[in-house]
Amino acid sequence: MVVTHKKWWKSSIVYQIYPASFKDSNGDGIGDIPGIISKLDYIADLGVNIIWVCPMYDSPQVDMGYDISNYEDVYPPYGTLADMELLTRESHARGMRVMLDLVINHTSDRHPWFVDSRSSRANPKRDWYIWRKARYGPDGQRYPPNNWRANFGGGSAWEWDPVTEEYYLHLFAKEQPDLNWENPVTRRAIYASSMEFWLERGVDAFRVDTVNMYSKPPGLPDAPISNQEADVQAAFTLYCNGPRIHEYIGEMNAILRKHNAITVGELPHTPEMERVLKYVSAEAGQLDMVFQFDVADVGLGKIHKFDTVPRAWTLSDLKMAVARTQDLIRGTDAWTTVFLENHDQARSISRFASDLPEHRVASGKMLALLETTLSGTLFLYQGQEIGAVNAPGKSYPITEYRDIESLLYYKMVDERTGGCAETLDRAFSALQHLARDHARIPIAWDGAALNAGFSAADGARPWMATHPLASEINVADQINNERSVLCFWRKMLRFRREHVDLLVYGDFRLLRVEDPDLFMFAKDNHQGDMVVVVLNFTKSTKGWDQPRPEELGLGVAGGIQLTMLVSSEGADGGNLLAPFEARIYRVDT
Q1: Confidence tier at 1 by pLDDT (50, 70, 90)
Q2: Are the beta carbons of 108 and 68 closer than 8 angstroms?
């Protein structure tokens, strides 16, 4: 049974905005804060309670703003501090709160802190970052301090600085040096600049980037060998969930609580429930909720996320991943999140359903019904509400990709294989299925307009090419079309609000986990209300049998009766489910 205290943010709908790709107000080809403000009514009409704005801080944009050079200013193409203050006021005026990204594992290498740190070994800010001496082999060859692999590309997590003749650590790009959280002076500066500055300006919440990576293990030991063919190894078992991580988050939480700010932490490489609970247990007083990666990691490669093929998963894999995120709140004082998309994930229709023209709409509705019936705080990513899909490979080649993760992976494969066409085709196939680029293509507001209405017709070319399917998948065509994915999302978000006890807080029971075609589960609020949700994850019409009372944990002699409440197809087809159809049934005993 779910044991939880009800709070406003638990039943909230969070809408994530990627500023560069949302709406360009001035025709320079880059989305901006005034563009976001111009669409606040659209967002509010969806039923959104919180907008989450991805990094809008000043940045060289090596990793699209996750490399911050000044926490206290805005990236000029996005706007100004005054624009951010206006966005906050206008959001509050519409009953929506504002969440910002908190990116504090690392900064940009152009942040003044790092510029000082790398200027001299004697600089007072030298130990604000993680510097180490080189290792040398018997032949005098210089090597990095350990064998850790960076998250982007396939190279070392260490970069040599020829001026001061030491290496600095960067778990991501070499332009993103890791901060040294062991230094209390550094931590106080981080809190003041990245948190308190914005809390004092009315920000209500933070999504905390890579929240479990701040505490590195003593001595920075070598990672275990998982890839015999590589000199560098995946080290997330060492740098995630380090020995002082909960101490640091406790310090952050003390500041956040003064402002009644809420938090959601990004928690990668942490599949163990007991570890997750240490972050989100109410008693622990750390984070309000976290993003677990169980669902996001379905189908990814084992050594490298892109070292895989499309749809390398079974429906049972997806069911179990969803169940693990739902089970987090069973009998605990923790809370969970619901999401299929964000700025780091490809489009869910392409990953988990079908983006074929004849199935796109049904797939988008099915996944909307799935998400809106799961327990936890629901996160919706821009474009998801219109059923956006991945860009087709033939009309959106690798030359149009912009994400550093995609480009470094493609470059690595090219260099390691000597440009082998077959291997590069396999790499691009994986990128077309899983790359972050797909979530970052500019929103198609109007399929009949130049640049799909993202920016002015007489303005600059958008920073990423317009989606090739913008004329088919766009806001204008759907906003008043009752059969559209957009209108179905609005309908399902209303339905979720009307059944909060059951859908947001209810107990999740997975049914028939081995069924390869149908995803079925029950939701129970233990107050006499229960629904059964059934989803057809195939391109074919499928028959189904209603669950037996014992499957639902009901000891009733007279059987049960199911009454359909919602169908993504709009009608009850009896025991036949249309391709990618989803339904909700009320259970009566």
Answers
A1: low
A2: yes
Sign of the dihedral defined by the CA atoms of residues 56, 60, 64, 65, in that order: negative
Following DSSP, what letter does each residue of 233-270 receive, concatenated?
B--HHHHSS-TTHHHHHHHHHHHHHHTT-EEEEE-TT-
Residues β-bridged to residue 564: 585
67-97 residue pLDDT tens: 999 999 999 999 999 999 999 999 999 999 9
Q: Is 266 a known active-site residue?
A: yes
The span from the CA of 193 to the CA of 196, in Å, is 6
Supply the DSSP symbol for 464. S
Are 497 and 421 spatial neighbours (Cβ–Cβ below 8 Å)? Answer: no
Alpha carbons within 13 A on the beta-carbon side of 68: 23
Tell me which residue of 375, 236, 371, 370 sits closest to 303, measured CA to CA. Answer: 236
Residue 269: CB atoms within 10 Å: 17
- The yes-or-no answer on residue 209 being catalytic is yes
Residue of 469, 396, 379 whose CA lies nearest to 435? 396
Burial class for 132, CB neighbours closer than 10 Å (0-12, 13-18, 19+): middle
Distance (Å) of CA 15 to CA 25, 97, 157, 383, 470: 20, 10, 33, 10, 21
Please tell me the distance from the alpha carbon of residue 263 to that of residue 70, in angstroms, as a whole number: 21
CA dist 378 and 78 (Å) reads: 27
Burial of 477 (0-12, 13-18, 19+ CB in 10 A): middle
* Active-site residue identified among 209, 297, 307, 501: 209
| Number of Cβ atoms within 10 Å of the Cβ of 127 | 15
Name 522's bridge partners.
509, 532
| Contact assessment for residue 430 and residue 306, using Cβ atoms and an 8 Å cutoff | yes
* CA pair distance 142, 301, nearest whole angstrom: 31
Mean pLDDT confidence for 4-15: 93
Distance between CA atoms of 519 and 70, rounded to whole angstroms? 46
398, containing H or E segment: none
Residue type for position 160: W
Residue 449 tokens read as 């307009």
pTM of the prediction?
0.96
d(CA 158, CA 170): 6
Rounded Cα–Cα distance for residues 390 and 385 (Å)? 14
Which residue among the candidates 266, 341, 403, 405 is catalytic per the annotation?
266
Cβ neighbourhood burial of 172 (10 Å; 0-12, 13-18, 19+): buried
Letter for the amino acid at 176? Q
Is 55 within 8 Å of 109 (Cβ atoms)?
Answer: no
Q: What share of the chain is helix, strand, coil (3-state, %, to 5)?
A: 30, 15, 50
Q: Write the pLDDT tens digit of every residue in 474-523.
A: 999 999 999 999 999 999 999 999 999 999 999 999 999 999 999 999 99
Distance between CA atoms of residues 440 and 347, nearest Å: 10
